[in-house]
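Form P-L/3: holo structure prediction, ligand (6S)-5,6,7,8-tetrahydrofolate.
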Amino acid sequence: MAVISPNRRVRKTPFSAGVDAAGIGGYTVYNHMLLPTFFESVEADCAHLKQHVQVWDVSCERQVQIKGPDARRLLQILTPRDLARLSPDRCLYVPITDQGGGMINDPVALQAGPDTYWVSIADSDLLLWVLAIAGTGGFDVEVCEPDVSPLAVQGPKAEDLMARVFGDTVREIRFFGCKRLTFGGQNWIVARSGWSKQGGFEIYVEGSEHGMELWLALFAAGEDLNVRAGCPNNIERIESGLLSYGSDMTRDNTPLECGLDRYVSANQLGHCFGGRALREQIEAGGPERQIRPIVIEGEIGPCTGSWPLLSEGREVGRVASAAFSPEFGVNVAIGMVERSHWAPGTRIEIETEHGMRRAVVQESFWR
Ligand code: THG
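OUTPUT (holo model):
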């Protein structure tokens, strides 16, 4: 395969020098920025992530900063999730919906200051949507993309490594809790979060010039913990049921179709974008299709697009994420499946780009 050439539009990150030196194997582009996809191999990286600790350059989780007296009110109309529990100590996973209830993004929202919020986005240009709403709605806010780059520390030894670099107070941070901690004279938000279910943290590094100093400090402190450079792992995240915006769901899908019902608050549907459509979908008895874990039988190659799910020749859904799981010994996949075929145990066919395969809808994700 040819390489991706970075330039002004395909942006490098504050950690790119470290990623290159660590022997990067492949990149994708996410929010117009480089995102590593593997180092040794997706399988080897996956096994290491589950045993040790990895440092991930997830700078591409760009922040949309909303700052000003109306910032919280604006953020609240962007999402059907009630933000009451959003505070400087606690971040929240928030679906963002359009007028029709379609998913525009599925970011993590943080409170970075008294009137300052960061929306840590998945791969869509949320900045433009927020700018337009702020401008046309007369909100007293400033909207920008600040120089903030998240660095994730993930894996079972993440807490020990983080405690060595940021101090033992990291151990007190709960899941999706946040704390401002100091490194090298800089004060940054650290959250217990990240796109794996192996445990870990994300550091919101402010100021690109400080990136490599933190990167190098984590590697120096973690030598005996077998720390390695890693990245969001496609096998681990499918096993874990972590959804990838643009692949597993798009603007064609509501949060209910994505199985994100627990992040849709009834008390917000009167005010937020898409609230009416979401209420209609709830009152109609729920969505007609929904995210399901799926096992695909036989050998499968990489899923580079989306694969139709078929029953007696009729399309009953799509799969856009699939991989062989060495831990579970099956091909794990995430599908958007019609109600008629979404019951656990339902047998369907799948038209992969490498041939037809049998598939079975599962009861739950693997972790
Ligand atoms: N961290 C940060 N920004 C991000 C991501 C992240 N932006 C892009 C992308 N990931 C956004 N998507 C997700 C998807 C899932 C989760 C976080 C971001 C997630 N979900 C947990 C789960 O499903 O078990 C828990 C959510 C909860 O209960 O609140 O963590 O990873 N900064």
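COMMENT: Residues 61, 93, 106-108, 120-122, 150, 176, 193-195, 202, 242-243 surround (6S)-5,6,7,8-tetrahydrofolate (CB under 6 Å).
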